[in-house]
Design goal:
The protein is of the alpha/beta class. It contains 27 helices and 14 strands. The strands form 2 sheets. Strands 1, 2, 5, 7, 8, 9, 10, 11, 12, 13 and 14 form an 11-stranded mixed beta sheet that branches. The longest helix has 45 residues. The protein starts with a helix and ends with a helix.
């Protein structure tokens, strides 16, 4: 696994190096496509695989003394953290086995998180026909298939078993859960053995695919039960260690009795309570060529993260080692070995650390949004009160305006700081949450200090330009060097949620898009002041093209909706900066150009060996199945309006824009108007930043979350620019020579009439 120092070095790698490597990546993808086409012609099984499922197994359970078989398997094979997320927050054993069956996220409909049901054995009645002699059928199979076909994932239950049968092979299930994992389209397995204790040498050698359910650890939690409130009663450390040791003995039975040359794929499979965790994944075997699981770590193209694989990858890996072609319905990728010189203890500790980091961010990620938006609401209130209390004393005015500006810049720097915090292992602290908060505040303070450090601090927009430039640069370099800062960060994604493992998540896209647009607009200010409109347009075009490439290319951001939003927004900015009118016809044409570009990227990606969701969308489009994806994302976007913390944040930002920034001040000019007077590109930059947020909201399933994040960056920076413009104007007024006074005529009215 890559060390943290190496990750930081990768993060700081130059843009030129990344661009030079891009053609080679494309060539590799083209070569991979040819390999896939060759594999498609395979029709016979060429290997032997045993899949061992140990629901609930953590890397913290694995040690030399208590689990010697697991320790030895780790020492000899490749290891990784396993993301087991399926359709629910916590994954149950039957859900996990069904996910292996389909190669797609699956579930047991209307089922509780219990042990898998006992199978229907030969000699007993089944709705789908008699079980095979010596085999079994998974109970409730027709309802399971129908339910999963109708979910958003359209999982095809029985896909793995059908592929083995079609290639002339057979399946053996050891334990109830294994029947759900390798049953064919009718839920059937050819041979069934109740437990590893009862399996003979002939049972282990009978079929090319064997699945083994080692459920002792999960059974311990079932036996412990729940408290009166329905919460899982935790196991003591001793009880859990005993259950793990018993599971280890079962694993030893399997490993010691399977035929030589069998590939072993061991997976922690599922959670054991309401809290999700990263589980154990170990592989040992050889598929020919360079795919050999020796001592080291594993990754997959589904995650692109060192030492991290997914549950859906297990199906793809099984098919690979059986010599079977992977159908498009199986969305995972083959586990790829990463040889390492780390000792077994170092690898186990590193993988355990991954789960610690995931748990640390899970406890604070949601509350961070609350704190961020609540803090900005307080900031808006302070700004409104401060601007109303500006008095006649010059020093008081300067302090109030200066303080408001610093706080606004600090708020604008917080999103970038939340990603930079990932450079430090804050989760290893005794009290990780306070350390994380201090780390974010520290980086935000550094960015604010940088924004106010140089001669640019006197400008109304340049300090904001520093913050947006750093924000866009940090996010761009991160996705171009492996997305290390995206994973397990406050505004990124986590392997527990498993919505994304590389590229831009929706929140990061929103920040990157707004930061890129504001950076392009404010940089164009300098040539525009010199009357060089073409140079200003060139700056917008270059930054826009780079930003769209970083966001949309599968090797980097791999973001479909981002391209749809950024292309028209940058086109608008180019027109507005050069003084041209933005008509509805032009805006529509820009939107079509964005759609054409992202479809072209999707087409190219669909031809690679391991297409991302971009390539899979093109394949679905060609198969006439893309409309379901579009409607699902649209429904998710509409439902996002129910995320009331984000909707509240958007509403508050809009109110602030009107009543504080756009409404005239006591000097009868709004803060935005003052900012517009001090910057030629302030108005087009703000409009296009809001446009990318609105378009992004409409074309992404996160919906209102994207717009709220866009406001979280643009609003405080606009406040800072407006306050600085007001500060400059008031200073100019104070330094202007006084106008000659004229004698005041005597009043003929009463004092009370004068006060009116």
């Amino acid at each position: 696994m890559t060390s943290r120092g190496a990750k930081i070095a990768m993060f700081l790698a130059t843009l030129v190096t990344v661009l030079v490597g891009l053609p080679g990546s494309s060539a590799a993808q083209a070569g991979g496509a040819s390999a896939q086409e060759a594999a498609a012609g395979a029709s016979a099984i060429r290997g032997r695989v045993v899949v061992v499922g140990v629901p609930g197994l953590l890397w913290s359970d694995v040690d030399r003394e208590n689990t010697p078989a697991l320790w030895e398997l780790t020492a000899q094979g490749s290891a990784a953290s396993l993301s087991v997320r399926t359709t629910r927050v916590n994954t149950c054993p039957t859900d996990a086995w069904l996910t292996l069956s389909a190669g797609q996220r699956s579930r047991l409909p209307h089922g509780d998180c219990a042990l898998p049901a006992a199978p229907i054995l030969s000699g007993h009645h089944s709705p789908t026909g008699p079980p095979p002699e010596g085999g079994a059928i998974a109970p409730g199979w027709p309802a399971i298939k129908s339910d999963n076909a109708d979910t958003d994932y359209h999982a095809q239950i029985g896909l793995l078993g059908d592929a083995v049968k079609a290639a002339g092979g057979c399946t053996t299930a050891v334990g109830p859960g294994a029947v759900f994992g390798v049953g064919d389209g009718g839920g059937r397995v050819d041979h069934y053995v109740p437990s590893p204790d009862e399996a003979t040498a002939a049972d282990w050698a009978r079929c090319p695919l064997t699945a083994v359910d080692v459920d002792g650890l999960f059974r311990g939690y079932i036996d412990a039960g729940v408290d009166p409130d329905g919460e899982q009663i935790p196991l003591s450390d001793r009880t859990r260690a005993d259950a793990t040791a018993a599971a280890d003995r079962r694993v030893s039975q399997v490993v010691n009795n399977i035929p030589a040359g069998t590939t072993v794929l061991l997976a922690g499979l599922s959670d054991v309570g309401v809290d999700p965790h990263l589980r154990v994944a170990i592989a040992k075997g050889e598929a020919g060529g360079d795919l050999t699981y020796g001592p080291g770590y594993m990754t997959s193209t589904a995650t692109r993260q060192d030492g991290l694989v997914t549950l859906t990858d297990l199906t793809a890996t099984t098919m690979k080692f059986l010599g079977l072609p992977q159908p498009k319905q199986a969305v995972g990728s083959v586990w790829q070995p990463q040889p390492s010189d780390d000792s077994t203890a170092e690898r186990v500790e590193s993988l355990e650390d991954s789960d610690v980091a995931a748990q640390g961010i899970r406890t604070v990620q949601t509350s961070f949004y609350w704190v961020l938006f609540a803090t900005q609401l307080v900031l808006y209130g302070i700004a409104a009160l401060a601007l109303r209390r500006l008095g006649g004393d010059r020093r008081s005015r300067a302090r109030i305006l200066g303080g408001t500006r610093v706080i606004a810049l600090l708020g604008g720097a917080a999103p970038a700081a939340s990603f930079l915090a990932g450079l430090l292992p804050w989760w290893r602290a005794a009290h990780p949450t306070p350390v994380l908060i201090c780390t974010v505040l520290g980086f935000a303070g550094l960015l604010t200090g940088l924004a106010l450090a140089g001669p640019w601090r006197r400008s109304s927009f340049a300090p904001g330009l520093v913050i947006t430039g750093v924000t866009a640069g940090v996010l761009a370099l991160d996705v171009m060097t492996g997305s290390n800062l995206q994973l397990n960060t406050l505004m990124g994604y986590t392997a527990l949620v498993a919505g994304r493992f590389y590229g831009f998540g929706n929140q990061a896209f929103s920040l990157f898009a707004v930061a890129s647009i504001l950076t392009a607009g404010w940089l164009a200010e300098y040539p525009l002041r010199a009357g060089r409109k073409r140079l200003a347009l060139g700056i917008v075009v270059v930054i826009g093209a780079f930003a769209v490439a970083v966001d949309g290319l599968p090797a980097w951001g791999s973001d479909f909706g981002g391209v749809l939003a950024m292309v028209p927004a940058f086109a608008m900015l180019g027109l507005m900066v050069t003084g041209r009118r933005v008509s509805a016809v032009r805006l529509a044409s820009f939107g079509l150009a964005g759609a054409a570009l992202v479809l072209f990227i999707s087409f190219l990606n669909s031809r690679s060996a391991n297409p991302t969701h971009l390539g899979r969308f093109w394949r679905d489009l060609m198969d006439g199945e893309a409309w379901g994806i579009v409607t699902r994302k649209f429904d998710a976007m509409v439902n996002s309006l129910g995320y009331w913390p984000y909707t509240l944040a958007v509403a508050a930002a809009v109110v602030f824009l009107f009543f504080v920034l756009a409404r005239p001040t006591r000097w009868r000019v709004s803060l935005l108007q003052r900012a517009y007077e001090h910057s030629l590109t302030m108005r087009p930059s703000l409009i296009c930043a809001l446009a990318v947020g609105v378009i992004g909201m409409l074309v992404n399933d996160s919906g209102v979350v994207i717009l709220s994040v866009a406001f979280s960056l643009s609003t405080p920076l606009m406040l800072a620019a407006g306050v600085r413009s007001l500060e400059i104007d008031l200073r100019n007024e104070d330094s202007a020579p006084p106008e000659p006074s004229e004698p005041r005529p005597e009043s003929t009215e009463s004092p009370s009439a004068e006060r009116r």
